[in-house]
Amino acid sequence: MNTTMVSSKNNRGTKKVIPFLLSLLLTSLLFVGCKNDDNEILIQEILDGEELAQSIKDQREQAKQTTILNADTGGEVYGAEGTILYFGPNSFLDQNGDPVTGSVSIELIEIYDKAKMLLTKMPTNGKRPNGDVETLVSGGEFYVNATQDGSPLELANGFQLLAPTDQVDNEMVLFSAQDNDCDDTDLDCDVVWEEDDQGDLEIVQREGPNGMGVTFYLGIADHFGWTNIDRWFSDPRPKTVLSVDPPEGYDNTNSNVYISYDGEPGTLALLDIYDPDTGLFSEHYGLIPIGLEIHIIFVSVQDGQYVYAIQSATVEEDHVEVIGTTSTATEAELVAIINALP
Predict the structure, then answer these.
(1) pLDDT-based confidence at 4, cuts 50/70/90?
(2) What is the number of other CB atoms lying within 10 angstroms of the CB of residue 83?
(3) In this structure, CATH architecture of domain 235-339
(4) Which of 80, 122, 134, 279 is most buried per CB count within 10 Å?
(5) Beta-strand pair 125-127/193-195
(6) What's the pTM?
(7) CA quadruple 188, 321, 340, 256: dihedral, nearest 10
C-alpha cells in the first residue's frame, strides 16, 4: 500500500511538472525567436546602403570647384589639378535661349586618379554602339556646368577643354554621359561613357596656370555635364567572365566592387552586374582578358568608415574571386592605399 500511495503521488507530480517544463520550453523558444529577430534587424541596420550612397553624393559635391566668369568677355577657368576650360565671348544662354550678360558661375570637377574615381563612383565603363559595356583607359573625367543666380544656363557654342598629360596617347578621344538616361548636369546619376561622334582631340603645348610649359589634350565640348577623355582598353588574349563573391551581408545595395588594371593608372572598371541568386558581382559580356594582372577592390561605408578589401589576382578562365578579410580606413587612408596600387 505504501508503494501504491507513493506511485500515485509521483504521478500527480509528474502531471504538474510536464506542463511547467513545456511552458518553460515554449517561453525559451519565444525568447530566442525574438532575439534572432532583433539580430536580423541589427544586421540589416549595420549593412544599410544609405551611408555609401550619401558618401558618393558628398564626394561629388566636395570635388566641385566654382569660378566666376564674365559672360560678355569669356575667359579661362583653371582647375586645381591642371585642367583648363576656355569659354569665348557670349558663350551662354538662359533657359529662354537669350544671351546672358554679367557674371556667371562655372562649376568644374576633375578626376585623374583611381581613388577619386572610386570615391565618386565614376568608373571607366564604356558602352559600344551595339550596347556592349567594356573597359576604358581614361586621361581625365570632367564635370562642367554654368549657372547665373542659381539658374542653369545653356551653351551658345562649344568650349575648349584642356587636360594635362605626362604621356601622350594618340588614341584618346572624347566620351560623354549625356545619352545614358542621365540629365546633362545631374550629379547623382551612375555614368556609362559613350564615344562622341565628333570627339577628336588635339595635342597642344602651352603655358599652364603656374607659368610652366605643359602638354595638353585639347577637345571641344558642346554640352554641360560629364565629359571623359578615353581610349578603349585593348588586349589580344582570350576573354572570360570574372565574378566576385562579397563578404556575408553585402550586395549591390550596400557595396561596390571594382577592378583596377595593373599598369593602367587611368583604368578602374565597375562590376555593375549583381546576381541575387548566386550572390556574385560580375561584368556584362565576359570581356576580361585571361592572364591579366589586376587588383579587386571591395568597398562599402559603415558607421562613418570605409570598409574595404583589396586582393591581387591573375585572371583565370571563369574566374571567381572570394573576398576574405575586410579592413576599415578613413578617406585619406583609403586614397593613399588605392593610389599606391600598381
Answers:
(1) very low
(2) 23
(3) Sandwich (2.60)
(4) 122
(5) parallel
(6) 0.84
(7) 10
pLDDT, average across residues 271-283: 96
Round to whole Å and give the CA distance between 157 and 143.
Answer: 17
Average pLDDT over residues 137-149: 97
Q: What is the DSSP letter of 102?
A: S
318: its cell numbers:
571563369
Radius of gyration of the chain from its Cα atoms, rounded to whole angstroms: 29
Where would I find the H helices in the chain? 2-46, 50-62, 114-119, 331-339
Q: Which helix (H) or strand (E) holds 111?
A: strand 103-111
| All three cell numbers of 9 | 503521488
- Please name the residues in contact with 286: beta carbons below 8 A apart, sequence gap of 6 or more: 239, 240, 241
Domains of the chain, residue spans: 52-232, 235-339
Evaluate whether 52-232 and 235-339 have a shared fold: no
Q: Look at 48 and 97; give whichever has higher pLDDT.
A: 97
pLDDT tens per residue, range 32-73: 444 444 444 444 444 889 999 999 999 999 999 999 999 999
Percent of the chain topping pLDDT 70: 85
Fold of 52-232: Chondroitinase Ac; Chain A, domain 3 (2.60.220)
CB 195 within 8 A of CB 134: no
pLDDT of residue 33: 41
